[in-house]
Write a structure and sequence with these properties.
Elements: E1 9-13, H1 25-43, H2 48-62, E2 81-87, E3 93-99, H3 105-115, E4 120-122, H4 123-132, H5 141-144, E5 165-170, E6 176-182, E7 203-205, E8 209-215, H6 217-223, H7 225-234, H8 239-252, E9 257-263, E10 268-272, E11 279-283, E12 286-291
Parallel strand pairs: 3-4
Antiparallel strand pairs: 1-5, 1-11, 2-3, 2-6, 5-6, 7-8, 8-9, 9-10, 11-12
Helix pairs in contact: 1-2, 2-3, 6-8, 7-8
Length: 294
């Protein structure tokens, strides 16, 4: 890890499920504000781990994305959430899968990382851990959950419709971190788990690169996901090439996906093969950029 300096970078995504022709102006405004807040935190010396958790938690609780408050019920009629977080220098990681009834799964994922010897807790075990550690619960699901921006009632019946939020960051100490959270695909089977809570496919951070994935989770898992990008990048592939190779494999398998990545060298990538991906990024040498479509 490099010595402390004034260099930093952060990228956020609000999911690769954006549909061409729909209005995401409010999402872009939110991402701009949130990315500016993350920039201020990094400029003030906050850790990348704190920044990615903060960014994902804010997106979960906004209700604007298919994560946290913006999640839809599964085929059994209730919401199950997935999230993961990873600290590059130590490779410490935490995740929750098929978690019902809590406001911020990314907070609970970090709790799994810091308070248990495990990486992933699922279902009833994740719920018991969250309750025992007094994380905020959803007291009335009917009042709490809402349709995210750009999602219609008709979309809820489309199993291929999806969304995710994620953040990657490099702090001034040279530490990388990544975090990802989702409500999963609409109408998913009870107990379905995609790539988001899986360390390797959905989220990855090491000394060289931090990555968060979004898209059709089953195809991302089968294509190798984030860890395949990290391995290719560390083997010498240019960042965009490493990402596009994985995206091409997702497409070949019949899915779509988006990737955000930050490298130790201040490289930032926000690439996707879907209609669009809600995204924002900034670094100590790049101005803040926000977009949904090309």
């Amino acid at each position: 890890m490099s010595q402390p300096n004034d260099q930093y970078a952060v990228a956020l995504h609000g999911g690769a499920g954006a549909v061409a022709g729909r209005d995401y102006d409010s999402v872009e405004k939110h991402l701009r504000t949130l990315t500016g807040e993350c920039q201020a935190m990094l400029s003030a010396g906050r850790t990348s781990l704190d920044v990615v958790e903060y960014a994902v938690r804010e997106m979960e609780q906004s209700g604007m994305y298919v994560a946290g408050r913006g999640s839809a019920a599964n085929s059994a009629g209730y919401v199950e959430l997935d999230a993961s977080i990873m600290h590059g220098p130590s490779r410490e990681a935490g995740a929750v899968a098929a978690l019902p009834g809590f406001m911020s799964p990314i907070q609970i994922a970090r709790g799994v990382m810091e308070k248990t010897p495990h990486v992933l807790l699922a279902g009833a075990g994740a719920k018991a851990f969250a309750r025992n550690n007094a994380y905020a619960e959803v007291l009335n699901a009917d009042d709490y959950y809402q349709l995210p921006v750009g999602v219609t009632e008709e979309d809820l019946a489309t199993a291929s419709a999806h969304g995710t939020v994620g953040a990657v960051a490099l702090d001034q100490s040279g530490a990388l971190a990544a975090a990802t959270s989702t409500g999963g695909t609409f109408g998913k089977l009870e107990g379905r788990v995609g790539d988001t809570p899986l360390i390797g496919p959905g989220t990855w951070a090491d000394d060289s690169i931090a990555i968060s994935c979004t898209g059709t989770g089953e195809h991302i898992i089968r294509a190798g996901g984030a860890i395949s990008i990290a391995c290719a990048y560390k083997a010498g592939a240019p960042l965009d090439n490493a990402i596009n190779d994985m995206l091409d494999e997702v497409k070949r398998l019949g899915g779509d996906a988006g990737i955000i990545a930050v490298t130790q060298e201040l490289g930032i990538a926000t690439l996707y093969n879907s209609d669009g991906m809600k995204r924002a990024s900034v670094s100590s040498r790049q101005p803040l950029e926000v977009a949904t479509f090309a």
